[in-house]
Structure prediction request, 278 residues.
Amino acid sequence: MNEQIAIVTGASSGFGLLTTLELARKGFKVVATMRNPGKSQGLLNEAKLQGLEQRIIIHELDVTSETSIKKLTPLLESLNRVDVLVNNAGYAAGGFVEELPVDEYRKQFETNVFGVIAVTKAVLPFMRRQRQGKIINVSSISGIIAFPGLSPYVASKHALEGWSESLRLELMPFGVDVALIEPGSYQTNIWTSGKQVTSSSADSPYYDFMRNLENYIESGNEQFGDPRDVAKKIAEVSIMKRPKLRYPIGKGVKAIIILKNLLPWSRWEAIFSKRLPK
Prediction:
């Protein structure tokens, strides 16, 4: 049997780095992609410590660049198969709708939605011909439950959820599975270097609200989960015979999703607003 091949986008840090290592431990040959291969040293150092460096291929990939994505195809042809694609690359844009330029939404969607679509389209012919494969899209609790001050990110993850549902139904006849990983709050750099917030000015009507929201998010840092749990879940789904569509993960995530689905919106809104900082 040919060696199984996995592709991970955004592999230089966070979930992507940890998932690359987990998949390598599971026996995959992993194509670890990132916009700047110069940032691969952390991944390579950890792989060497764990004796996994021979199972990892570093490949430059900007998911927002058609030219960059086209350069992925020759590599895949040389490997002759693709078994797993983990669409992890992304960032979080925030700010209040009235103050956010529309271009911020476009930039957010270029990475978190259109980038996912473009990379998936490049990989699909291989999986379809094989009549097997798994596409694992890293979504978020924000793809199900909205939060003020993060509408670009929330909207992009809601879009990813709907697109993944359609894709799963389209690929069922070809033996290709699509799954969504929906993490809650975890200690990754998406909320530090991976966050791009359009801040309110001091004279903005939203200034106090924004400051209180940021303090509220930062105050919960100690309760953030271990991102290795998410990486392990992705690796687990990668070897499942028939994965389901959604995998919410994180403290209280499943309960809050059930609560939102069961309650009328007015009741949900009242409960949610009580938890927000005033």
Q: What stands out?
A: DSSP finds ten helices and nine strands in the chain.
